[in-house]
Design a protein that fits this description.
Elements: H1 44-54, E1 84-87, E2 96-106, E3 109-114, E4 122-126, E5 130-134, E6 146-147, E7 164-169, H2 173-176, E8 178-185, E9 197-207, E10 210-227, E11 238-239, E12 245-248, E13 277-281, E14 306-309, E15 314-319, E16 327-331, E17 337-343, E18 354-355, E19 358-359, E20 387-391, E21 401-403, E22 406-411, E23 424-428, E24 439-444, E25 455-458, E26 472-478, E27 484-489, E28 499-506
Bound molecules: calcium ion (2 copies).
One calcium ion (CA) binds next to loops.
């Protein structure tokens, strides 16, 4: 992978003029259906935060008050040949698509990466802190690739956004055996009192004589970021075509980007904090890491690591492996709109002045104000997403509301499914907080519509005609062939072993 600046195509910058209130998806009735809450004591300690975050009255699927550091036992699994078959719906042509299970027995799989070479081996990270080797025969090795559980903060067995969230191999992994992880560590001593935990971006090395195992003594912590709350942690680290490591960080958590650990302008808008940004660092530079000299805030006010900002919780960032190698970043919305962005260097993506294409008021998060600034604090334009869709939290019965929390995916560049070629495949975590009902989505933009929002549609499955799975959709991955993987959890918490990894394949 060549070092230095790649030849990125610039996404046309959409600059707000005057009122900045345009909405490509006119609202229908905001008819809320109440969901009776059945709050379980297990996650009571976090319920207030979750309620603030989600603004929900939902069934919470958990059953007692303890939190525990999970120690799931893994057994070697031969993957069942069961296939969920599906037909791509309108706009995706008549090609049919299936989700083929390739691995299971996880709690909440968050990342998958393919090892270099012809072995066909893949690594699968589980949010609870383990990384597993999936052999070319489709079996999970008994021996863990990496076990971070002792280095992580104690996770909730109920809902939790912390954990092992990202895994990326160095572009030259084959020669240097270096890999990088993002995980949630206990709060460090120097952090402000009462904050929640400290995010680590760490380097490890695999053993020279056993590439299927990490040397646990090889950890080098590159970056520590203190987090005021448990949620909005970003974490899906990835190397760009320029050879630099990109690190998405959420706004620090809670809701509205306000409260403890959030300055008045919000972490998203504050370029003197790393939170609410996508960072870009040089893992081959000066220790603990170098700063690419063309990062936007080098030589001026603002953290030098920041590549782009104004983000709430970028969950799922990925470079298009082809085309202009553009960087896609899903940004989880608050209560009303979910969005996907194409990230430009130095761009301000609007949070918490804006949510999707709409103005946002942290004091009235469910009611988009008619007016808001069209620039950030330093006069920089606020960049619109490439798409938004309505969030069922405030648009519960609206057919254009797919779910409640966007999950970033990838631009399909495989050869197996021609109907998906060039489309951005992503998802919503679930239509409901309390029941597993993730929705697969696909977005595209024709040349004629350049500059307009991308069109979003459900990626329908046979037996699941609306693209809805009976699982929460946690994350996506892409292999070197451009094929896409979907990772799920049947629970909304970190318990059980119901997490699965699927590959999108053409229907047989
Ligand atoms: Ca600076
Ligand atoms: Ca935004």
């Amino acid at each position: 992978m060549p070092k230095r600046e790649a030849n990125f195509l610039r996404f046309p910058r959409i600059v707000h003029t005057k009122k900045a209130t345009k909405n490509p998806y006119p609202c229908k009735d905001e008819n809320r259906s109440g969901v009776q809450s059945l709050v379980n004591s297990r996650i009571r300690s976090n319920f207030k935060a979750m309620k603030q975050q989600f603004g929900l009255r939902r069934n919470i699927e958990a059953d007692q008050g303890a939190v525990s550091h999970l120690r799931p036992l893994f057994s070697m699994l031969t993957i069942a040949s069961i296939v969920i078959s599906g037909i791509a719906t309108t706009g995706l042509g008549k090609s049919s698509v299936e989700l083929k299970p390739i691995a299971q027995g996880f709690t909440s799989p968050t990342a998958l990466v393919q090892l270099p070479g012809k072995s066909g081996k893949r690594l699968i990270a589980d949010q609870v802190g383990t990384v597993h080797v999936l052999t070319s025969e489709g079996e999970l090795k008994d021996e863990l690739f990496l076990d971070l559980r002792d280095r992580m903060v104690e996770l909730n067995e109920g809902f939790d956004e912390r954990g092992l969230l990202g895994l990326a191999l160095h572009p030259n992994f084959k020669a240097n055996r270096r890999l990088f992880v993002y995980y949630s560590a206990p709060l460090r001593d120097s952090a402000p009192d009462g904050w929640n935990h400290t995010s680590h971006v760490s380097e490890f090395k695999v053993y020279k004589d056993d590439r299927d195992q990490v040397n646990p003594a090889s950890e080098r912590i590159l970056l520590r970021v203190d987090q005021p709350q448990f949620n909005h942690d970003g974490g899906t680290i990835t190397f760009g075509p320029d050879g630099y490591l990109y690190i998405p960080l959420g706004d620090g958590g809670k809701a509205n980007d306000t409260g403890k650990g959030h300055p008045a302008k919000g972490n998203g808008q504050d370029i003197t904090t790393l939170l609410g940004s996508i960072l870009r660092i040089d893992v081959d530079g000066d220790k603990p890491y170098g700063i690419p000299s063309d990062n936007p805030f080098v030589g001026r006010t603002g953290k030098d690591e920041i590549y782009a900002y104004g983000l709430r919780n970028p969950w799922g960032i990925a470079f298009d492996p082809a085309g202009g190698h553009r960087l896609f970043a899903a940004d989880v919305g608050q209560n009303s709109f979910e969005e996907v962005n194409i990230i430009e260097k130095g761009g301000n993506y609007g949070w918490h002045i804006r949510e999707g294409f709409h103005c946002f008021d942290p004091d009235q998060p469910n009611k988009a104000p008619a007016d808001c600034p069209d620039v950030g604090a330093n006069g920089e334009p606020l960049i619109d997403p490439i798409l938004e869709y309505k969030n069922r939290k405030t648009h519960s019965d609206d057919p254009e509301a797919f779910g409640i929390s966007v999950v970033g995916g990838h631009v399909y560049r495989g050869e197996a499914i021609s109907a998906l070629q060039g489309k951005y495949v992503f998802a919503d975590w679930s239509r409901n907080w309390g029941s597993p009902q993730g929705v697969l989505l696909a977005a595209s933009q024709s040349d004629a519509d350049s500059g307009k929002p991308w069109r979003v549609e459900r990626l329908g499955l046979k037996g699941h005609p609306n693209g809805e799975l009976d699982s929460y959709i946690v994350s996506f991955a892409q292999d070197r062939a451009g094929e896409i993987y979907v990772m799920t959890n049947d629970r909304n918490g970190l318990y059980g072993k119901n997490g699965k990894v699927y590959k999108l394949v053409p229907s047989q």
